[in-house]
Amino acid sequence: MSLAEYQSLDVSTDGALARDLGARLDAEAEQTLLSLSAPQGASAECPALLTSAMQTWYQQHVSSARQSALGEVRRAFAEVKTSSGNEGFLVEAEKDRIEQSKQAHLATERANFFQRKEIIDLNSEIGRLHTEYERKRAEHGRDAQAWRPGFYFLGLFLFVMAEYPVNLSAFLKIDFLTPAFATISVTLIAFGLAFSSHLIGQVIRQWNERFGDNVTGRLKAESLRLLGVGVMLLVIGAAAIVFSRSYLVAEAVARSEALGEEGASTVSIYGLALIMNVFVYAIGLAWAIVFHDPVPSFMEERHRLEVLRARLRKRYRTLLEPKQRQRIEEAQRARDQADRREADQAKSLPNHTRYRAGFEEVRKLDARVLALLENYRSRLLVQARQRGIHTRFVYEDLTSGDVDTTRELDGEAYLRQRLHLGYV
User: Fold this and answer.
1) Which stretches of sequence are listed as region Disordered (predicted)?
2) 398 — phi, psi (to 5°)?
3) How many Cα atoms occupy the beta-carbon half-sphere of 41 within 13 Å?
4) How many Å is the Cα radius of gyration of the chain?
5) Contacts of 376 (CB under 8 A, 6+ apart)
6) Mean pLDDT value of segment 112-119
7) Is there a contact between 37 and 102 (Cβ–Cβ < 8 Å)?
8) Is 18 helix (H, G, I), strand (E, B) or coil?
9) Distances (CA, A) of 240 to 171, 244, 279
10) Is the distance from CB of 397 to CB of 40 less than 8 angstroms?
11) Residue 56, Cα to own-chain centre: how many angstroms?
């Protein structure tokens, strides 16, 4: 088992190994989604960014001979020491070992993070909401309307504020209310009418989804409760406003009689006095209708899902990201140190040039293996396109810095990725 065994492999473009690799094309060309090996932490046994068929072919035909050849090269370096007494090493293998150690630490730290109870609970709720949201998304063929609660409730608050100049003067005319109680009364009525417009507008917007033929009795009952509360608040608010307006109307009638003028009818005076209230309430109702999605709870679930995911990202940035960043920086320092050690042993390690030449022989064979794999990759995409299949490729990237480490590539992006066989 040596470099000679690796050199004896027939990795020509028309050889038996190439034909065996090509025979695996049909199965993968039919698939729309293919998993790739991880891009970092490649080893001589598990190269980076290979499909399952490429990986299986490599392990069946190449891996053993290549590992033997690399072992021979690494042993040659290790058997000799530099002038300073340091053991020789293959720098490419050392860098791969550093990367593998980094990936192992990143994976362990991520696993520990996701085993925390708060993260388990958070992920469980995110999963439940995601399933429900995706069900509705598939059912209605669209995403939910964006829910901006801050902007929406700010609009309702302005609606509340608009009730003050409209109603306060009338309530101050009520003889048994002090100014403080009059102000409190106007505030309660304003908030009641705002909540009423919110409930009624929501039900109107979602009428078909709440009272349609296929709607469950439970949802209909809930909708009737919402509508009932909204109407009740509207009636209470309207009654209080009409009562307060009666004092203004009585004052206007008394003034007209005192001046001997023929005043307008009481109904017309009430109508003029209440028209602004109707206008303000109509604005609040329209505001609620516009800002709600036609599907009950659809936009709320989307917003809740976004909030929970943001919370998870925040916990990730606080609890995990600093540790991961530290691991990545440590690995970079270790690689830099390996480069310095290589520069030193290039000057002082006996037969360094000869050992590097042996490694270059391995790399020449690697280039031929990579050529077969890259040719397979190109043919895979060509065949998939000929069949009308747009293949997507997914892999895990632990260095992404995101909560979700899954990454997806289209065919063109995958072709641009460098395949790496690994040296350790």
Assistant:
1) 328-350
2) -70, -15
3) 16
4) 37
5) 21, 22, 24, 25, 53, 54
6) 94
7) no
8) helix
9) 9, 6, 17
10) yes
11) 32
pLDDT surpassing 90 at residue 370: yes
pLDDT above 90 (res 280): no
Query: Which tokens is 280 given?
Result: 């303000």
Q: What percent of the chain has pLDDT over 70?
A: 94
CA-based nearest residue to 106, from 55, 35, 38, 49: 38
Neighbours of 201 (CB within 10 A): 20
pTM: 0.76
* Strand ranges in 22-73 using DSSP code E only, listed in sequence order: 33-35
pLDDT digits (tens, 9 = 90+) for 117-126: 999 999 999 9
pLDDT for residue 260 is more than 80: no
Among left, alpha and beta (phi > 0; psi -120 to 50; other), residue 85 is left
Closest-CA residue to 352 (of 366, 341, 337): 341
Q: If you ran DSSP here, which 8-state letter would residue 88 be given?
A: P
Chain segment 294-327, per-residue pLDDT in tens = 999 999 999 999 999 999 999 999 999 999 999 9
Residue closest to 92 by CA, chosen among 109, 77, 113: 77
d(CA 286, CA 205): 10
Q: Which residues contact 300 (CB under 8 A, 6 or more apart)?
A: 147
Distance CA 413, CA 25 (A): 19
Determine the Cα–Cα distance for residues 255 and 267; give it in Å rounded to an integer.
17
What whole-number distance in Å separates Cα of residue 280 and Cα of residue 27? Answer: 66
What is the Cα–Cα distance from 89 to 91, expressed in whole angstroms?
6
Q: What is the SS3 assignment for 366?
A: helix
- Tell me the C-alpha distance between 81 and 369, whole Å: 32
Q: Buried (b) or exposed (e) across 380-390, using 16+ Cβ within 10 A?
A: bbebbeeeeee
Using the predicted structure, report yes or no on whether residue 376 has a pLDDT greater than 90: yes
Residue by residue, DSSP assigns 243-280 as: HHHHHHHHHHHHHHHHTT--PPPHHHHHHHHHHHHHHH
Q: Are 187 and 167 in contact (CB under 8 A)?
A: no
Give the closest residue to 177 by CA, choosing from 192, 191, 188, 166. Answer: 188
Token digits of residue 219: 């949802």
Phi, psi torsion values for 33, nearest 5 degrees: -135, 125
**CB-based burial of residue 197 (10 Å sphere; 0-12 exposed, 13-18 middle, 19+ buried)?**
buried
Could you tell me the sign of the dihedral formed by the alpha carbons of 101, 103, 109, 115, in that order?
negative
Q: At what angle do helices 217-258 and 149-172 cross, to 10 degrees?
A: 30
